[in-house]
Design brief:
The chain is an alpha/beta fold. The protein has a domain at 20-68 and 102-149: Ribosomal protein L13 (Ribosomal Protein L13p, Chain: A, Alpha-Beta Complex). It is built from five helices and six strands; from the N terminus they run βαβαββαααββ. The protein has helices spanning 30-42, 73-76, 94-100, 102-111, 118-124, and strands at 20-24, 58-62, 79-82, 89-92, 127-129, 143-144. The strands form two sheets. It has a four-stranded parallel sheet with strand order 5-2-1-6, covered by helices on one side. α1 (30-42) packs across α4 (102-111) and α3 crosses α4 (102-111).
Length: 151
């Protein structure tokens, strides 16, 4: 009896094909940008996606200061951090964060969409965010990623 054997192909560190992409954040809505970039960092857009392996791509985001927040999120959204000491809770708004470090707003949004474990921390290292249109990764020859093509 001749039967077909179907096997699930699982990617590993050696078989993963990683690419470099560049995303222009000018005029993009923060949440939609973060969701699509997190999907690419995770590798879910690839056919050989494996949940426990870093099979995602490297992403460079430029023009981080030109991202858009809809509604009153710029003043009403609150980021909370705590030092661990009594009375050590600090709050800040995206408006204050944009004035000091515009790339931190995008970092916080994308990091919140990645897994909260070792794999998520490893995936986050594949993200590079720059204020302005200049970056230092020309040697990697990044391809331009159109976010409208990702579903």
């Amino acid at each position: 009896m001749n039967t077909l054997k179907y096997r699930t192909i699982s990617a590993n560190r050696d078989t993963v094909n990683k690419q470099w992409f560049i995303v222009d954040a000018e005029g993009e809505i923060l949440g939609r940008l973060a969701a699509k970039v997190a999907l690419v960092l995770r590798g879910k857009h690839k056919t050989d996606y494996t949940p426990h392996v870093d099979c995602g791509d490297n992403v460079i985001i430029i023009n981080a200061e030109k991202v858009v927040l809809t509604g009153k999120k710029l003043t009403d959204k609150i980021y909370i951090s705590h030092s661990g000491y009594p009375g050590g809770q600090k709050t800040t708004t995206p408006k204050d964060l944009f004035a000091k470090q515009p790339e931190k707003v995008i970092e916080k949004a994308i990091k919140g969409m990645l897994p909260k474990n070792r794999l998520g921390r490893e995936l986050f290292r594949n993200l590079k965010i720059y204020v302005g249109s200049e970056h230092k990764h020309e040697a990697q020859q990044p391809a331009i990623l159109d976010l409208n093509t990702i579903k």
